[in-house]
UniProtKB/TrEMBL annotation, chain A:
Name under which the protein is recorded: RNA polymerase sigma factor
GO biological process, one term: DNA-templated transcription initiation
Chain ranges of the DUF6596 domain: 188-288
Source organism, top-level taxon: Bacteria
UniProtKB/TrEMBL annotation, chain B:
Protein name: YciI family protein
One family name in Pfam for this protein: YCII
Record organism: Ancylobacter mangrovi
Family according to the record: Belongs to the YciI family.
Occurrences of domain YCII-related (ranges): 1-113
Lineage top rank: taxon: Bacteria
Length: 426, 123
C-alpha cells in the first residue's frame, strides 16, 4: 500500500457507493462487506500495474459481485476456484455498471445503506458507530479512539449492532430493497440527516484532551453530508445540515485554549476561523434559502452564518439571531432553544429581559448546566451576586466536562473580584 | 501569451484527504508557485470549493433556469471564466443573468472560491 497511497484514498472514496450497490445485490450486509473487502484486495494487486479504472466504484461492484457469487457457489458445491481470467473482462462490463450506478437506483442504494444503520432499535451511539464502520469504513480502532473506549469493547458493540440489524432485516420491520417512494425517501433522508448530525455533535461536544481525538467525527459527518448532497442536490435541509456543520466546525481552531478550556464565541480569535469552510457553509445556505422551504437545519445554519459574518463580536446581528431563534421555537419548540434565544435577547434588550425569558424554564431545565450558567451570568450583570453564585455552584455540579467546570470557575473568580473591588470602593 | 491551467481531479478522493495530506500537497505547490511568481509568470490562482456548493444557470432558455449542483452536460466545452466579488449567491446569479442576456446559450456554473491569490503576471 505504501507504494501507491492513491489506491487507499480511491478505495475509501468509492466505499459508500460500492458497498451500497453490493448490498442491493446480496441483501446481506456481511456478504456485501466481504465482497467489497475481496474486491479491494484485487484492486491492490491489479491497479498498480494496470492503473486505476475509470470508475473505481463500478470496478469494485463488478469484481466484488463476481467474487461473492463464486464464494456462495463454492460453499454450495465445493466446486474448484474459477480462474483469474474470469475477472479480466471487468473493463468491458464496467461501462454498463457505471451507467446503472449513475441512475437514481444508486442514489437510493447509498441512502438505504445509511438508513439501515439508523435502525430505531439501536441506541444513538450504536447507530453512529455502525455508520462510521460500515459507510465511512473507519477501522474499529479509529472509532474506539473517538469514543474513548477500548478496541475490544467497540468491536463487540459493532458486532452486536450488526447482528441486531441483520435480524431486523429478516423480519417484517426490515428495510425493503426496492426503490422507495417519494414520501418514504423523504422520511429516510430525515432520519439519516439526524444521524449525521449526531455523528457531528459526538465530535463537536468534546473538549480538552479528547477534542483532537474526536475531531475526525466532525470531518466524517461533513463528508457524509456532502455525499448525500451529491446524491440529492436539490434538498434544502441537506444543504442546511451541511452548512450548519461547516460553519460550526470552521471555528474548531479557536474554540479551546492551550489547556483545553472552552473559549466562548465572543472571546474567540476570529482570525483562526477557517475561511474556506465558512465560504462553503455560506454558499450552501444561500442555495438552500432560494428553495423557500425552510427547516430547522437551515434556521440553525442561518444563526451560525450570522455569527460567521461578524468580523468582530460587536458587529453580530443579534436582532437577526433573535428572530431566527423565534422561528426555531415555532419549528422545534424546546426549552433549550428558548434558552439560546435568551442569550440574543440579553444582547439586544439587556439582562433583565433575558432573565424574564429564562425564569419560566426553571422547571424543565433545573438539571441543565447551561441553564444555570446563563442564569448566573445574567444575575451577575444585574448586580445580584449572591443569587448568581448559587447558580454558578449548581452549574459546576452539573458540568459534564472539565472545560465546562473551568469556565464556571472563571465566572466565580470574576464574581469574587467584583465583590473585592466593590468592597474597596466603599 | 497567457495560458490558463484547469485542474481536474476526483472530488471525493481529494475531499477524503486528511488535513495533513492536504497541507503537504499545498506546501509542495506553494514552492513551485513562489518560483513562478518571482519569475513574473504566475497569474491568479484559485482553489474551488466542492461541487456540492455549486449552482448552475442554464442560459439556453428565457428566462434562464437555476439548478442546484455543478454543470453536468458533456456536449458543451469550457470556454472561459470570470472571477466575481459578490455579497451572496443572489448577487452572483444577477450578474450571471446579465452576462447571459448579453450572450445567450450554454450555461454558467457558479462556484465559490476557497483560496485565491492574485499572482501578479499581466499580459
Amino acid at each position: 500500500m505504501d507504494e501507491a497511497p492513491w489506491i487507499g484514498t480511491t478505495l475509501a472514496a468509492a466505499r459508500p457507493q460500492a458497498l451500497a450497490a453490493l448490498l442491493r445485490y446480496f441483501h446481506d450486509l456481511d456478504l456485501a462487506e466481504e465482497a467489497f473487502q475481496e474486491a479491494c484486495l484485487r484492486a491492490l494487486k491489479t491497479w498498480p500495474q494496470k492503473g486505476p479504472p475509470r470508475d473505481a466504484a463500478a470496478w469494485l461492484v463488478f469484481v466484488g459481485r463476481n467474487v461473492a457469487i463464486d464464494a456462495v457457489r463454492r460453499r454450495a458445491k465445493q466446486a474448484p476456484l474459477p480462474p483469474e481470467e474470469t475477472f479480466s473482462d471487468a473493463e468491458d462490463a464496467e461501462a454498463e455498471i457505471a451507467e446503472r450506478l449513475d441512475s437514481s437506483h444508486y442514489r437510493d442504494d447509498v441512502l438505504r445503506l445509511l438508513f439501515i444503520c439508523c435502525h430505531p432499535e439501536l441506541p444513538a451511539t450504536q447507530q453512529i458507530a455502525l455508520a462510521l464502520r460500515i459507510v465511512s469504513g473507519l477501522s474499529v480502532g479509529q472509532i474506539a479512539r473517538a469514543f474513548l473506549v477500548g478496541e475490544a469493547a467497540m468491536e463487540q458493540r459493532i458486532t452486536r449492532a450488526k447482528a441486531r440489524i441483520a435480524k431486523a432485516q429478516l423480519g417484517e420491520a426490515g428495510v425493503p430493497f426496492e426503490a422507495p417512494g417519494a414520501v418514504e425517501r423523504a422520511e429516510r433522508l430525515g432520519v439519516v440527516a439526524a444521524m449525521i448530525y449526531l455523528v457531528f455533535n459526538e465530535g463537536y461536544s468534546a473538549a480538552g484532551d479528547t477534542a483532537a481525538a474526536r475531531e475526525p467525527l466532525c470531518e466524517e459527518a461533513i463528508r457524509l453530508a456532502r455525499l448525500l448532497l451529491r446524491l440529492f442536490p436539490a434538498e434544502p435541509e441537506i444543504m442546511g445540515l451541511a452548512a450548519l456543520m461547516l460553519l460550526q466546525h470552521a471555528r474548531a481552531a479557536a474554540r479551546f485554549d492551550g489547556e483545553g478550556t472552552v473559549i466562548l464565541l465572543d472571546r474567540q480569535d476570529r482570525r483562526l476561523w477557517n475561511g474556506p469552510m465558512i465560504a462553503e457553509g455560506l454558499a450552501l445556505l444561500d442555495k438552500a434559502i432560494r428553495h423557500r422551504r425552510p427547516g430547522p437545519y437551515q434556521v440553525q445554519a442561518a444563526i451560525a452564518a450570522l455569527h460567521a459574518r461578524a468580523a468582530r463580536p460587536e458587529e453580530t446581528d443579534w436582532a437577526g439571531i433573535d428572530a431566527l431563534y423565534a422561528t426555531l421555537e415555532i419549528m422545534q419548540p424546546s426549552p433549550v432553544v428558548t434558552l439560546n434565544r435568551a442569550v440574543a435577547v440579553s444582547k439586544l434588550r439587556g439582562p433583565a429581559a433575558a432573565l424574564a425569558m429564562v425564569e419560566p424554564l426553571g422547571d424543565r431545565l433545573s438539571g441543565y448546566f447551561h441553564y444555570h450558567g446563563l442564569r448566573g451570568a445574567l444575575l451577575m450583570q444585574l448586580g445580584r451576586p449572591r443569587e448568581a453564585r448559587d447558580d454558578f455552584m449548581s452549574a459546576i455540579s452539573l458540568a459534564t466536562t472539565a472545560a465546562e467546570a473551568a469556565h464556571i470557575r472563571a465566572q466565580l473568580d470574576a464574581l469574587k473580584q467584583e465583590a473585592a473591588e466593590a468592597g474597596h470602593g466603599a | 501569451m497567457l495560458y490558463t491551467l484547469l485542474c481536474y481531479h476526483q472530488e471525493d478522493v481529494v475531499c477524503a484527504w486528511t488535513k495533513e495530506e492536504d497541507d503537504a500537497v499545498m506546501q509542495k505547490l506553494a514552492v513551485v508557485q513562489e518560483r513562478l511568481a518571482k519569475a513574473g509568470k504566475l497569474g491568479p490562482v484559485a482553489r474551488l470549493l466542492p461541487t456540492t456548493a455549486a449552482t448552475t444557470l442554464r442560459k439556453d432558455r428565457d428566462p434562464p433556469l437555476v439548478l442546484d449542483g455543478p454543470f453536468a452536460e458533456t456536449k458543451e466545452q469550457l470556454l472561459g471564466f470570470y472571477v466575481l466579488d459578490c455579497a451572496n449567491l443572489e448577487e452572483a446569479l444577477d450578474i450571471a443573468r446579465e452576462l447571459g442576456a448579453a450572450n445567450p446559450g450554454g450555461s454558467y456554473e457558479i462556484r465559490p472560491i476557497g483560496l485565491f491569490h492574485d499572482g501578479g503576471a499581466r499580459p
